[in-house]
UniProtKB/TrEMBL annotation:
One of its GO terms (biological process) is prostaglandin metabolic process. Pfam families: adh_short (PF00106). One of its GO terms (molecular function) is 15-hydroxyicosatetraenoate dehydrogenase activity. It comes from the Eukaryota. It comes from Astatotilapia calliptera. This is 15-hydroxyprostaglandin dehydrogenase [NAD(+)]. The keyword Oxidoreductase applies. Catalyzes the NAD-dependent dehydrogenation (oxidation) of a broad array of hydroxylated polyunsaturated fatty acids (mainly eicosanoids and docosanoids, including prostaglandins, lipoxins and resolvins), yielding their corresponding keto (oxo) metabolites. Decreases the levels of the pro-proliferative prostaglandins such as prostaglandin E2 (whose activity is increased in cancer because of an increase in the expression of cyclooxygenase 2) and generates oxo-fatty acid products that can profoundly influence cell function by abrogating pro-inflammatory cytokine expression. One of its GO terms (cellular component) is cytoplasm. Its EC number is 1.1.1.141, 1.1.1.232. It catalyses: resolvin E1 + NAD(+) = 18-oxo-resolvin E1 + NADH + H(+); prostaglandin A1 + NAD(+) = 15-oxo-prostaglandin A1 + NADH + H(+); 14-hydroxy-(4Z,7Z,10Z,12E,16Z,19Z)-docosahexaenoate + NAD(+) = 14-oxo-(4Z,7Z,10Z,12E,16Z,19Z)-docosahexaenoate + NADH + H(+); resolvin D2 + NAD(+) = 16-oxoresolvin D2 + NADH + H(+). Coiled coil: none annotated. The keyword Lipid metabolism applies. Belongs to the short-chain dehydrogenases/reductases (SDR) family.
């Protein structure tokens, strides 16, 4: 399906899952703002994407999503360059149990801020045209590991926030579809960080537990996660979906009991 004329913003877009999603969006003819902390990687990535898709389709914006003012400017900069905004992927995430407050800031607070900024630019409540938001959580939202307590907490938080906001969007008639995406292990540089004492602090001693999980459940390729994202973006019947992607079941959806209250 063509996303011709659509404008997307992807955080953590210079590497790993974000990079794969940027590529898929460009393949579908969207314009993309690739947002990342890593300037060198972002510029290198943009040069490669310009060579493949032509100049003017992708812009790189250097931004630390944990800096609220910089994130606000990044959204505005995207709209200034491309005219409007239709798709926001809040993907940037880290695993740092030593600086665990930073992990909460990047993985949860910035996802909340990114969702509110996306609504400012896309919600019919604000006179905009509607759109789609995807917040990247993890299968760590449905299971836990002694190796990553705060990472696990942030990913649970992303699901709770996203489901509540999806209901607010439906009941408030925002015209914005809001989803959470939960991959199992994916072959990206983030997976290497879990063996590093600088990241894991005292929990590094549980790394064998983590590695056993990886060999038990397998490791996915970023392209499959991008495929799941594209399904959430293009299937307009989906609203408030919690998509899971695992080696055993591929792309599928989590189902919840109806609320009794
Ligand atoms: N790799 C995996 O096994 C899984 C990853 N995830 C989630 O997917 C998302 C993407 O992860 P990966 O691609 O694996 O990670 P990655 O480490 O390969 O790439 C993350 C990108 O985000 C950027 N980034 C980090 N902090 C940032 C900040 N404060 N501001 C702006 N950009 C920042 C990095 O520079 C990097 O380019 C994360 O939210 C992660 O928790 C979820 C499930 C599994
Ligand atoms: C709970 C472990 C957290 C590890 C954090 C480091 C890297 C991040 C990886 C993830 O976010 C993925 C986390 C956990 C789930 C992995 C596999 C579950 C597969 C379940 C299944 O196949 O049924």
């Amino acid at each position: 399906m063509s996303l011709n004329g659509k404008v997307a913003l992807v955080t953590g877009g210079a590497q790993g899952i974000g990079r794969a999603v940027v590529q898929s969006l460009l393949q579908s003819s969207a314009k993309v703002a690739m947002v990342d902390l890593n300037k060198d990687l972002g510029e290198e990535c943009k040069a490669q994407l310009d060579a493949e898709f032509g100049e003017g389709n992708c812009t790189f914006i250097e931004c630390d999503v944990a800096n609220g003012d910089a994130l606000r400017d990044t959204f505005q900069n995207t709209v200034d360059q491309f005219g409007h905004l239709d798709i926001v992927i809040n993907n940037a995430g880290i695993t740092n149990e030593k600086d665990w407050e930073k992990t909460i800031q990047v993985n949860l607070t910035s996802v909340i801020k990114g969702t509110y900024l996306a609504l400012e630019h896309m919600s019919k409540e604000n006179g905009k045209q509607g759109g789609t938001i995807i917040n990247v959580s993890s299968m760590a939202a449905f299971m836990h590991s002694p190796h990553q307590p705060v990472y696990t907490a942030t990913k649970h938080g992303v699901i709770g926030f996203t489901r509540a906001m999806a209901d607010a969007a439906i009941q408030g008639d925002y015209g914005v579809r809001i989803h959470a995406l939960c991959p199992a292990f994916v072959d990206t540089p983030l997976l290497q960080s879990v063996e590093d004492e600088d990241n894991m602090g005292k929990f590094v001693k549980f790394k064998d537990d983590f590695k056993r999980s990886m060999s038990k459940f397998g490791v996915l390729q970023p392209s499959l996660i991008a495929e799941g994202m594209m399904r959430l973006i293009t299937d307009t019947s989906l609203h408030g979906a919690v998509m899971k992607i695992t080696c055993s079941k591929g792309i599928h959806f989590h189902t919840y009991e109806p609320m009794s209250a």
